[in-house]
Specification:
This is Ubiquinone biosynthesis O-methyltransferase. The protein is built from eight helices and eight strands, in the order H-H-E-H-E-H-E-H-E-H-E-H-H-E-E-E. The longest helix has 17 residues.
């Protein structure tokens, strides 16, 4: 797959249509705002971000990228959804966030231009939206420096995740817009682990993310049956 073809036009259109609502914390993106402190703290505990060069792949409106910059990292956010990137840029100006920039480019294309550039790469809630997630994982490996850290998050593919992440979140609780996720595109931890091993990563840590719809409370634990995250490293040698 070429560096410019690993995207789904329907997925880009879906998120572009909602771009103006990225920073509305009561909008369709409320879950991202709610889980962002959990993701940020988890990453920052594994590798303190202050002073590091960080790439956020599939940054959307910049929720995580902006937060990492506020931790003192020098952050580049990349995406192919132009409207979302404009929203991210506008928010950075309005919030006076220093140390963050955004670019419309794919991970594969950037990997060809700037291999081994970043101390940390994050790719969160993005792999389940592209035709070839393994190619994105491989590009992340190319982009990070030897000894660097790469973080992934996505959704498991099983009966429980279908019930909770799609039926529950999109059709019953209306936490997410209907059609946000396609069951066939969800990724089992074993599959993501295989993509990581094939790229050359060492898998360091996994974490699951849970949600209580009654309290609207999210938390991290070891249960990866629905939402989960991987922390990986690129060997130094």
């Amino acid at each position: 797959m070429s560096t410019n073809s690993n995207f789904d036009p329907a997925e880009l259109a879906k998120f572009s249509d909602l771009a103006h609502r990225w920073w509305d914390k009561e909008s369709e993106f409320r879950p991202l705002h709610q889980i962002n402190p959990l993701r940020l703290t988890w990453i920052d505990k594994i590798i303190p971000l202050k002073g590091l060069s960080v790439l956020d792949v599939g940054c959307g409106g910049g929720i995580l990228a902006d937060a990492m910059a506020r931790k003192g990292a020098k952050v580049m956010g990349i995406d192919l959804a132009e409207k979302a990137l404009k929203v991210a840029q506008l928010h950075a100006l309005e919030a006076q966030t220093e140390g963050v920039q955004y670019q419309k480019i794919s991970a594969e294309a950037l990997a060809a231009e700037q291999p081994g550039t970043f101390d940390v790469v994050t790719c969160m809630e993005m792999l389940e939206h592209v035709p070839d997630p393994a190619a994105v994982v491989k590009a992340c490996y190319a982009l990070v420096k030897p000894g660097g850290h790469v973080f992934f998050s996505t959704i498991n593919r099983n009966a429980k995740s279908f019930l909770f992440a799609i039926v529950g979140a999109e059709y019953v609780l209306n936490i997410l817009p209907r059609g946000t996720h396609e069951y066939a595109k969800l990724i089992k931890p074993s599959e993501l682990a295989a993509y990581c091993r094939a790229a050359g990563f060492d898998l360091q840590k996994t974490s699951g993310m849970q949600y209580n719809p009654l309290t609207r409370h999210y938390w991290l634990d070891d249960n990866t049956s629905v939402n989960y995250m991987f922390a990986t490293t690129k060997p130094a040698a």
